[in-house]
Amino acid sequence: MRHSVAPNRMSQAASQVTNAVAMNRLLEKKKEYDAVAALERVTTLFLTRIEGLADDCEVMADAGQVHGQVLEQWQNMFRVLDLFLANRQQHGADDSAISESAPGERLVRVPLDELQIDATNSSRQAC
User: What is the tens place of the pLDDT at every residue in 72-101?
Assistant: First the structure.
């Protein structure tokens, strides 16, 4: 007697449906994983940019403090210049009086341009 093939066909159809559902679910999970991986890459890039901005802000804050210190010194510089001019007026505007003055009472002009050129040349030679 011959066995019926109809029950086998039913089980094959059921397993094909199960396989199709599993494949669809697998594809959905793969898409979800790819989306999360892309999100992680973008987040890492965003974090790198934010850290760069934070470093720039710290540099600007330090520069602001330095500028504040420099501006604070201008008052002292003007006070020193006023004292020098007052002392100079008391002793007369004569050049000989300035040359005979005590050490440290004469203003000296420092050539900053030459110092900056020397500094840039030495830094280029160091590289």
Answer: 999 889 999 898 888 888 876 555 544 555
Contact criterion met (CB below 8 Å) for 101 and 111: no
Return the structure tokens found at 67: 């500028």
- Between CA 81 and CA 89 the distance in angstroms is 12
Check: CB of residue 105 under 8 Å from CB of residue 87: yes
Q: Coil, strand, or helix at residue 110? A: coil
Distance, in Å, from the CA atom of 82 to the CA atom of 75, rounded to the nearest integer, reads 11
Whole-number Å distance between alpha carbons of 40 and 32: 12
Which amino acid is residue 32, in one-letter code? E
pLDDT tops 90 at residue 48: yes
Identify the band that residue 14 occupies on the pLDDT scale cut at 50, 70 and 90: low
